[in-house]
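pls design
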């Protein structure tokens, strides 16, 4: 075998390390962003110290091998290679899997981990925020990363067959904050009503809630921009928010006053509404009435209809 250059030898050793140690070989601690709540950065330092120790041991062993032996480990070809191949296969056999599984998750880093980073300007454009959205954004996390289902999986339940492992400090902090915020959101019985953006800011100010500054600034900027708009002539075109508000009004009146049921094969509500419209000197097509009633019905939770029929 031709003698390898120093560069080629280093590359070969690096290749063998890649195969031996895997993805955690090049892992580095990410740069921390602004963190609301606790973190446990010490576990990252511990992981890196363990990983680096294994790498040093492996490099030390490989450096004393000849070029031919390194090539044999990479590409064994004859039975005489079995002893060398067997030795390398058993080297750090148990230590490497252990260190790989000990790689801390982003939650150990806290909500300053870059994987949680939210687009605050995007969320500040929403008319309302749900409890879970507000909760996630308050600590700087994207709501898509901290979902209601994910939070529920952290909460121990009585008689749960697979209870969650010990929570990271960031998880415990978020669960505690959720208990705090729940008291400010209205519960309809089927869930918590989203909170208007202006009320979100008022709540933060009122209880002096420690939130991510970029989230607070984005909300404040959005509300300031809305307040600065000139109050000129209003457009005849409905915004999406206005349309949703009208549908909610239709739902409330049609379902409570006219007993409309969108799943019923026949409804007296359509004819009754048409008669009431005609009583004030106006006219409307029954198909138009039914169209709007059905669209409004999509806003009503199915449990409402089940309760009404029961």
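designed seq:
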């Amino acid at each position: 075998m031709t003698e390898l250059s120093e560069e080629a030898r280093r590359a070969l050793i690096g290749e063998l390390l890649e195969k031996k140690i895997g993805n955690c070989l090049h892992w580095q601690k990410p740069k921390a962003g602004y963190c609301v709540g606790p973190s446990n950065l010490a576990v990252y330092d511990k992981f890196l110290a363990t990983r680096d120790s294994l790498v040093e041991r492996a490099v030390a062993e490989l450096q004393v091998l000849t070029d031919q032996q390194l090539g044999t480990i990479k590409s064994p070809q004859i039975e005489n290679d079995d002893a060398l191949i067997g030795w390398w296969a058993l080297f750090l056999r148990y230590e490497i899997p252990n260190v790989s599984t000990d790689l801390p998750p982003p939650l150990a880093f806290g909500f300053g981990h870059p994987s949680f980073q939210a687009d605050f300007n995007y969320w500040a454009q929403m008319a309302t925020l749900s409890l879970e959205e507000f909760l996630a954004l308050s600590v700087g996390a994207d709501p898509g990363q901290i979902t209601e289902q994910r939070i529920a999986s952290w909460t121990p339940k009585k008689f749960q067959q697979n209870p969650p492992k010990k929570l990271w400090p960031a998880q415990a902090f978020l669960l505690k904050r959720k208990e705090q915020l729940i008291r400010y959101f209205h519960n309809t019985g089927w869930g918590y009503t989203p909170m208007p953006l202006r009320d979100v800011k008022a709540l933060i100010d009122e209880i002096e809630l420690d939130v991510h500054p970029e989230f607070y600034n984005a909300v404040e900027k959005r509300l300031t921009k809305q307040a600065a708009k000139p109050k000129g002539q209003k457009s005849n075109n409905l915004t999406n928010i206005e349309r949703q508000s009208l549908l909610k009004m239709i739902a409330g009146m049609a379902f409570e006053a006219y007993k409309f049921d969108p799943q019923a094969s026949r409804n007296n509500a359509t004819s009754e509404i048409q008669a009431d419209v005609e009583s004030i000197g106006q006219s409307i097509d029954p198909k138009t009435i039914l169209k709007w009633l059905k669209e409004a019905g999509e806003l009503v939770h199915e449990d409402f209809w089940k309760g009404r029929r029961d």
